[in-house]
Amino acid sequence: MDGDRELQRSVIDELGWDPGVKAAEIGVSVKDGVVTLTGNVDSYPEKWAAQGCVKRLLGVTSVADEIEVRLPGASNYIDSDIARAAENVLDWNVSVPNGRLKLTVEKGWITLEGTVDWQFQRVTAEKALRHLFGVRGISNQIVMVQHTTPVEVGARIEAALKRSAKVDARAIKVTLLDSKITLSGQVRSWAEREEAVRAAWAAPGVFEVADELRIES
Description:
Blueprint: H1 2-17, E1 26-31, E2 34-41, H2 44-55, E3 62-65, E4 68-69, H3 79-91, E5 101-106, E6 109-116, H4 119-129, E7 137-140, E8 143-144, H5 153-163, E9 172-177, E10 180-187, H6 190-201, E11 208-215
Parallel strand pairs: 2-3, 2-4, 6-7, 6-8, 10-11
Antiparallel strand pairs: 1-2, 5-6, 9-10
């Protein structure tokens, strides 16, 4: 219980430290390392920034984000305008494959669909849309086209983990089945967990990453 109270205080302090977050509008509760965020914010980037504040703290095992985006003057944001802006952003991004994605917008929520060859393209497409006016949230339903898994892909991922200054590779096990990578073991923080998953996705031929890592600070 004392640990939860200390973690709650750390989350509140971190939210207050981040200039992109209005901490007074966000409620924080913690139980057994699970952080729940509530309240209202003015934009989707602020909601995302609040999540980021929590994930980089030691002791956080998971995050329940119940923050609602309430846009100021929301009636001025029209779905068709958001859709046109989003299409332009994707068209001008060199990391997003042209002509392979489609999007729909409903009440400020963007749904992304289509196929890409790499995980970084899937992530980049979503990131590119976060800061558009009127966006309340993004549902990323982009799927990856399966590649032939190269020989020794598991060894390449293990080598990448060892090179990373953010990850203790000794505590992580990498298992390869077809083109699916499973990461198991323990990490010290959410940030270390995300870095390990990112490293796994970066390997050529990886079609799916199963994150079974445990956070044990």
